[in-house]
Amino acid sequence: QAPIKATCEEDMSCKTGFPEDVHSAVVSRSVHGGQPLLNVRFRSCDGNKKIHFGSSEPEDFRVGEDGVVYAERSFQLSAEPTEFVVSAQDKETQQEWQMRVKLTPEPAFTGASEKDQRKIEDIIFPWQQYKHSSPLKRQKRDWVIPPINLPENSKGPFPQELVRVRKSDRDKSLSLRYSVTGPGADQPPTGIFIINPISGQLSVTKPLDREQIASFHLRAHAVDVNGNQVENPIDIVINVIDMNDNRPEFLHQVWNGTVPEGSKPGTYVMTVTAIDADDPNAQNGMLRYRILSQAPSSPSPNMFTINNETGDIITVAAGLDREKVQQYTLIIQATDMEGNPTYGLSNTATAVIAVTDVNDNPPEFTAMTFYGEVPENRVDVIVANLTVTDKDQPHTPAWNAMYRMTGGDPTGRFTILTDPNSNDGLVTVVKPIDFETNRLFVLTVAAENQVPLAKGIQHPPQSTATVSITVIDVNESPYFVPNPKLVRQEEGLLAGSMLATFTAQDPDRYMQQTSLRYSKVSDPANWLKIDPVNGQITTTAVLDRESIYVQNNMYNATFLASDNGIPPMSGTGTLQIYLLDINDNAPQVHPKEATTCETLQPNAINITAVDPDIDPNAGPFAFELPDTPASIKRNWTIVRISGDHAQLSLRIRFLEAGIYDVPIVITDSGNPHASSTSLLKVKVCQCDINGDCTDVDRIVGAGLGTGAIIAILLCIIILLILVLMFVVWMKRRDKERQAKQLLIDPEDDVRDNILKYDEEGGGEEDQ
Question: How many degrees, rounded to 5, is the angle at CA 340 between CA 338 and CA 342?
């Protein structure tokens, strides 16, 4: 329905105001928010007046500054005419005019004879009077033409006349030519709108689609026969009125949501969304949602509801229980025309709502008492399996069980682990158990979930049970007491002496066993033996603290005690002998060899006394030279410089180069004292200015005597003889090979000749 045209009729006797008291208009039955309905006609004798339009029903209708009446909201017109008042007020003088508007709904549009139903309106170019001698002059003013509303999907016939553009009736002397420009006319998409250049009749050539182009902005032009513009162009706006030609489409055909079990009514679940390509501000694009079906229908067929405008799905009933119903399937329908079941188009989608688990079921033991047994002294073994049932979803924190002991294990010999697959509690021994001390354990255990129970659950948060564990007696290994056993003994104890008694005990008091047998496991120096019956240890050699098998005065030996149980068991014990030192070793000189120059200066030799014994049987030491032979004290002198060190030097000015054995008497501080005479081999050599021996003397000084040098020379001579003999043998072998080749005639070589025999008959075959 095109809005009614507004004109401004001005003449010399002009009266400002509405041209009529009541204005009637026929509009579409379905009114959409923002839709232009009509244009009121207001006569203004003064073009400079600033008029403000108003409506008596502002919540339903709004009047623009250009006089176009718009619908403020979407609604359906009733069969009775709808009336309201339009007012016009002068902004300067505050003068006000009123006109009653009556809207009548049009019959349903069929598109068959639209030309008969629509009155073709005229759009008149603003008339402008040419200058003349009259003192009154027409003022040129721009007109705003109300939009032309054209329904989409019209069935024709085409071309369909819309409006006629013509010049002012006041100036009929001119012959004009009309044209139209803009998208839809001479711009893409071209050819939708055409105009008769003579009559100015504007027509549409094909059905329009609002979802492609919602409005067209055209401009009508008028020129004279010479092509001169005689009128200002008129802007024509053609609004494509939406028709309900598109069904709602859901963004997803299947929607997935979740809701915790036990949720209260009003809990938000999910939102489904559908879109409609029709005008969202009109009823054609206004969607309403509803739930068509729910499966399953327990515990109530209406567990959920949907907000018909937003698509939000919420719960409306209590009783969601995952253990009974794990999933609900809803069929959701979206209908346009604000859900009108008669005129609206619909579409459906599926909403799948999974009921998620909460901890509303505690674990429960399958028995009040569980039984198990464990051999004594065994650890890291499972002695009992505790089984529970839990109706919550498996392998979730609401299903996973945690076990703890509440009594019966004060020493912490057991722990309970959870099997992640079966959720069973595995009672495990973590500390050895002695049958002779504890034969039976009665444990109290509790099971609960990893997360606390949901609020409002009337079950106890945990379940309790009893575990009875029997300890089985087994043959245990005997053990030595004490272990290790320490014995303090002076070294030098003779072989065959009784050292100690080292016995073991058998912890099995309730088994019939005879006695223990002893044997030796480790005795590095082979000094000891043990009696197999009574465990008495005697020596088989002299104990020596200075032995290489003694570390830090301690000698260790290991012994074995075995029983005759089934199966036989054995245990080891260590005997530690702490050897006390006695003065059984005399001190010795170190080093055994030294070098000095044949002159008096420098000729000091530093020597050290070493003693395998320890304090007080070692240093400080006394150093002295023997009285015999007399040449020793005549040629040498010795001076102690500390408790362990002394200095030997020449007494005379010159001593011929050579090797001299100097005896030195060293005495320790033990009680009684121990002394020895050690020979110090001194090499006297010729020295250079730096006090170093010459090369020859260095060889001697390096420890090579005359005999050693002779031996080295003999080895060298023997090696040279062997090399010479090998060379001679090789040459002799070559000569023999050459002589043998000369005895053979090359022509007589049988390998190169065929021998012929003048014989007949079958004789022997010669090869």
Answer: 155
735 inside domain? no
Helix H, strand E, coil C: the string for 258-272 is: EEECCCCCCCEEEEC
Q: Which helix (H) or strand (E) holds 250?
A: strand 249-250
Least confident of 16-30, 238-252, 619-633, 736-750: 736-750
Pick the closest to residue 493 from 547, 531, 544, 529 (CA basis): 544
Of residues 507, 528, 527, the one with CA closest to residue 519? 528
Closest to 106 in 3D by CA, of 140, 65, 135, 149: 149
Per DSSP bridges, beta strands 570-580 and 517-522 are unpaired
pLDDT band at 722 (very low <50, low <70, confident <90, very high): very high
pTM of the predicted protein model: 0.48
CATH of the domain at 443: 2.60.40.60
Beta strands in 422-532 (DSSP E): 425-429, 440-449, 463-472, 479-480, 485-490, 498-501, 504-505, 517-522, 528-530
Answer yes or no: do 428 and 505 share one domain: no
Q: What is the pLDDT of residues 618-666, one digit of tens each?
A: 778 888 888 888 888 888 888 888 888 888 888 877 888 888 888 888 8
Domain that residue 322 falls in: 249-356
The alpha carbon torsion through 676, 677, 678, 680 (nearest 10 deg) reads 150
* Identity at 684, one-letter amino acid code: V
- Cα distances (Å, whole numbers) of residue 306 to 267, 302, 321, 343: 12, 11, 20, 22
- Residue 661 to residue 675: CA distance in whole angstroms: 19
User: Would you give the distance in Å from CA 216 to the centre of its chain?
Assistant: 57
Overall average pLDDT of the 751-758 stretch: 50
Residues 396 and 444 in one domain: yes
Q: Are 32 and 281 in contact (CB under 8 A)?
A: yes
